[in-house]
Amino acid sequence: MTKAVKPAAGEARHYIRIKEQILAEIAEGKLQPGDRVSSESELVAAFGVSRMTANRALRELMFEGVLKRSAGIGTFVSPKHLDVDLLQIRNIADEILERGHTHQAIVVKAGLMKADANVADALELILGAEVMHSLIVHMENDRPIQVEERYVNPLVAPDYLSADFRSMTPHEYLTEVAPITAFEHIVQAVKPDPAIRKYLGLRNDHPCLRVFRRTWSGEAVVTCALLYYPGAQYRLEARSTKGPARPVAILGEKQ
Amino acid sequence: MTKAVKPAAGEARHYIRIKEQILAEIAEGKLQPGDRVSSESELVAAFGVSRMTANRALRELMFEGVLKRSAGIGTFVSPKHLDVDLLQIRNIADEILERGHTHQAIVVKAGLMKADANVADALELILGAEVMHSLIVHMENDRPIQVEERYVNPLVAPDYLSADFRSMTPHEYLTEVAPITAFEHIVQAVKPDPAIRKYLGLRNDHPCLRVFRRTWSGEAVVTCALLYYPGAQYRLEARSTKGPARPVAILGEKQ
DNA sequence: CCGCCTAACCTGTATATACAGGCTAGCCGC
DNA sequence: GCGGCTAGCCTGTATATACAGGTTAGGCGG
Question: Is strand D within 7 Å of residue A15 (CB)?
């Protein structure tokens, strides 16, 4: 009667392991959009779990838009899970170099710290867990263009602090260690606090664009970061399709 | 034992009825952000369902970002935040109504004008072409929440100005006339000019989120708009996957 | 050959039960 | 009075089971 055995891998939860396997097969291309996914009873047999557990895995993937289910028919891979490049997660250094400018990173802080409530919550770790923290100012032609305050999950990228952030941005390093499978951006306009203002070299009343970004690799949160940009000088763009990327003056601005 | 009786109301599914009741209490204000929600066992007693069913209702509401749960503590109403999805275009009136609030539009201006260089460029028309222009302030519960300055391509929507924008948002009207096939969002943080500040009722130094949006129908630019939101209160969100929309305190903010 | 019915398979919902582990209030002993 | 332990409540996960209703293929009878 199949005791509730602990699964072997690092991830203990059965429904997560089922989700990860299906996501991996989609990522590898073994499962194509429109393809039929194993039915609940097939997953029960394959993973040795109960049907409710298989159901939960499939239902959550449906919620997330990965799968499409219909009673009596089966479960299928959603057609358009490739909405690529909508709002790119891009390496700030690439963006700067693309403009033909020079990029330089100044590492202000890099070290270990204990996660406070907010950080623990964001990284899905327990309160007080040790996390890695870095504070980097990115310069474009010797002018500050972004302050990056980052917290990294040591379970995913244990050697984060040994990277040299002057030659490789945290983003570059982390995508190498753990490919990004999901992201979240929350954008706000804020009045920067004095420290940020100093790093960005801003006047007192200059607004700031603050992007809170989290990235996942599989089911694990890899990192979260607060990115501060000097307000009006920076544009964050999101497009539905690749083109038209033709730059246009924003109304109300002198070109 | 408790037989699996059919619930009385139109909605038969138990977990849906539990979700609806909780959502109703939040909409009515009986449950405020941060308030504790009935525990699973309390719902079991109140609705006569099994714990798994109560669990499902609460878990789905957590997925949807309505509730926040933590083991050992309980289930709580998520802090309300105003947010807009950057990766899709929605009707602001719908968003407000979904939050259980009332929407009202104040038409400040509506008329014809000749396109200046920026507008002509954005709408892909020639300089000096006649375009339609509207300036609308959207109110949520009688508080200004968005200033919408819009320019419309008369070749696509010639009757734009005859619409009644108090009963139908420009977005609603335009999507009816010309379905959106592509869009572009450019986000900046700006210091609002005095007029915008007045419309939004902001203090002098309060930053603003400005979204420049263009939408296409086929190959033609339908409209472009400058949307101003009160800065730190408003969040633009972009995520690669639908769930989990579990709200997380942005680092550095008190929740 | 065609139409109907059924068996097999699928998801959707619901139940009762179990064990784990986080958290807290209160009691007990020192 | 104070520290530590425990009982009780909470969520998280997992199990086995049940019945419903949608869909399809195949078999049986006219």
Answer: yes
